Amino acid sequence: MSTVISVENISKAYRLGTIGGADLSDDFARWWAKMRGRPDPLAKIGEEHHARLMGEDFWALDDVSFDVKEGEVLGIIGRNGAGKSTLLKILSQVTAPTSGEVKIKGRIASLLEVGTGFHPDLTGRENVFLNGSILGMTKEEIKRKFDEIVAFSEIEEFIDTPVKRYSSGMYVRLAFAVAAHLEPEILIVDEVLAVGDAQFQQKCVGKMGQASRAGRTVLFVSHNLSVVCSLCSRALLLDGGRITSEGLAADVVSAYVQSSATSKGEVTWDGEPNSNNGRLRLGRARTLSGGQVTANVHIDKPLAVQYDFEVLRAGLNVSTSIHLHDKYGTCVLASGTGPRVLESGWYRHSCVFPANFLNDGRYTISILLISDITRFEVSVPEALSFVVHEAKGREGWLGEVIGCIRPHLQWEEIPLEPAAANL
Amino acid sequence: MTEEALKADLRLIEAEPSEGWTTRITPHRGWLDWRLGQLWRYRDLIGLFVWRDFVSAYKQTVLGPAWHVIQPLLTTLMFTIIFSRVARLSTDGIPPFLFYLIGSVAWGYFANNLTKTSVTFVGNAHLLGKVYFHRLVLPISVAVSNLITFAIQLGIFLVALTFFWMTGYRPHFTAWILFTPLFLFMMAGYGLGGGIIVSALTTRYRDLANLVSFGVQLLMYATPVIYPVSIIPERYRWINDLNPLAPIMEGFRLAFLGAGTVDVSQLAVSFCVMLGVLVVGLMLFTHVERTFMDTV
């Protein structure tokens, strides 16, 4: 299969601090000095050449190269600030790289946001045409697909209402419906699946799968690792502007989860403020097995999760909860305490996962401190991580056991009489 | 590898056939690499932007598109009262109302082009930061929407002219009327060229945005819009001759009302200056277009 996108040594620097801040007289002084072949009069001594290259610049992407083959669905994952969005911006030609070159074969469309260019005063119908056209469809194409788009969005009855009267869900549905009907040879998608309700999201994932089966090349950035696993054939892991892992999607995803796990069994946040507005503060969190702080637990032993937090304002209505994610990023469960009015001071919440409950592999725990039932005061994603190890002496199937959990269920076996078996 | 060998390798790579690549994204683009041919692909988008500007401007207004009519009429009425009745400026023997109407309609086309295209980058940052299309689509669609406004307003002028004709005034259309498309083109060129120069510079120097509406206002008084060239004393005529917009404004009046002072050579110079402004605008625009998202 031929290569349709070739990214060669792409780097992108952003200037820190004085972004866009410029003074005409400074610029003029620089220009005048340059015209006479003098050094930059405004550069600090000793920094004449490297100031721009090393000092004040932030490299969002640093020498990134990769190829994408025709019909491939490539997932791009990484932490916030790893350079994913910058990479997509360069591929979408929204901004130019600082160095390097990208070569693309075929019609390309990018979806960095749903509903780009929607005008609130125009009706749904009018916006379908406007948005479709901005994304690169021709008027004819939109006319042809119009009914399909409206049907997909499920908002037929409101199509002639100005979109500013739409609920946010309806708005997103219509916007995604337009995007879903783009038929470029190469599609670039950024996080747009993280919108709408669960049912609609499922529909969107289905549509993306369809696009890839139709032989379209798709580049897909997401935080939803299970979607990356199920949709993408290959994935890239970006970290600090560099590619740190590349290969089969499932492998890269688990490499990412491994690398982002703390795996010490205990985390302390001192000095580091993790509170949104100074009402609650998370101090320490740990996982324990057999009374010991550890990040390793056997599958047939219980695991305790414990965290200490400080109530900084007396009389706050506090509840806390944890989200447990498996190595593919799928949320296994959420559990928490009921709301209770607490005096100021330190508190410890803990809970226990029973033995023979989780599957083997790595899990991460996110901790949430909540006030008044709905206000997220502290939210620490992937605060803790731990590994559930296979117990010794397992019988029968020795390969991987699939699934998020592996509880011991009660199985029965009843020998049947030949008469009863002859149904 | 030695440096020479490396260079030779690089040359080999460059010499490779393009292998059917349709898009190349590189850090820099030439000052003259305007890719105007690409614009044809975006004709639907230009049409839709024009239509959006037209439709959305009058949603939830009582008078709707009538504002296209009311605005120049009120401006003209005010000019007539202040400059003709109060200040008693000459209008070359033309009924003051018609004189000011053609002036404000023609000047309006230029002024709207300039002020609206001057915010191309800053005003559309949310759109330009999310999707690629040829960036010139935006200023061009502005010029086209303004052309529609101009056509409507020219219609009003013709209605007013008919009215004056019925009350006994005899307008003198001249052969200059055939030059109307040229005058319009030049107005568009100046407005667009100036606008995109400003829009490119405002990505760096935000102050310019404040200067534009004020500057256009001043420029109007420096250009024979509300007065004919003929009232400028001979000694100061050279100042007017330096203004490339002057022959266009006088040309409009000469075409539709038969009174004005237009020198063909002055018009030719103005045309060349317009091309120069347009070229400089396109160069700056092309240069800024690629990275302005990082500074806006």
Under CATH at level 1, the class of the largest domain in chain A stands as Alpha Beta
* Total domains of chain B: 1
End-to-end C-alpha gap of chain B: 42 Å
What structural category arises from helix and sheet content of chain B?
mainly alpha
CATH superfamily of the largest domain in chain A: P-loop containing nucleotide triphosphate hydrolases
CATH architectural designation of the largest domain in chain A: 3-Layer(aba) Sandwich
Strand content of chain B: under 5%
Sheet bearing the most strands of chain B, described? Answer: none
Average predicted confidence as pLDDT of chain B? 86
Radius of gyration of chain A: 27 Å
Count of DSSP H/I helices of chain B = 13
CATH topology of the largest domain in chain A: the name is Rossmann fold
Helix content of chain A: 10-25%
| CA-based gyration radius of chain B | 23 Å
The largest chain-to-chain contact, stated as pair and per-chain residue counts, equals: A-B, 46 and 36 residues
* Range of helix content of chain B: 55-70%
Number of DSSP E strands of chain B:
1
Output the helix-strand order of chain A: EHHEEHEEHHHEHEHEEHEEEEEEEEEEEH
Structural class computed from helices and strand pairing of chain A: alpha+beta
Mean pLDDT of chain A: 83
Task: Describe it.
The complex is a heterodimer of chains A (423) and B (296). Chain A is an alpha+beta fold and 423 residues long. Chain A has 2 domains: 65-260, P-loop containing nucleotide triphosphate hydrolases (Rossmann fold, 3-Layer(aba) Sandwich), CATH 3.40.50.300; 266-389, abc- transporter (atp binding component) like domain (Coagulation Factor XIII, Chain A, domain 1), CATH 2.70.50. Chain A is built from 10 helices and 20 strands. Chain A has a 6-stranded mixed beta sheet with strand order 5-6-7-3-8-9, with helices on both faces. In chain A, strands 13, 15, 16, 17, 19 and 20 form a 6-stranded mixed beta sheet that branches. Chain B has one domain. Chain B has 13 helices and 1 strand. Chain B has helices spanning 3-15, 43-57, 67-86, 96-117, 120-123, 125-128, 137-166, 180-202, 207-222, 237-242, 246-257, 264-289, 292-295; one strand at residues 23-25. Chain B is globular and about 70 Å long. Mean pLDDT of chain B is 86; it is low at 5-17. At the A-B interface, strand 1, helix 3, strand 4 and helix 4 of A face strand 1, helix 2 and helix 13 of B.
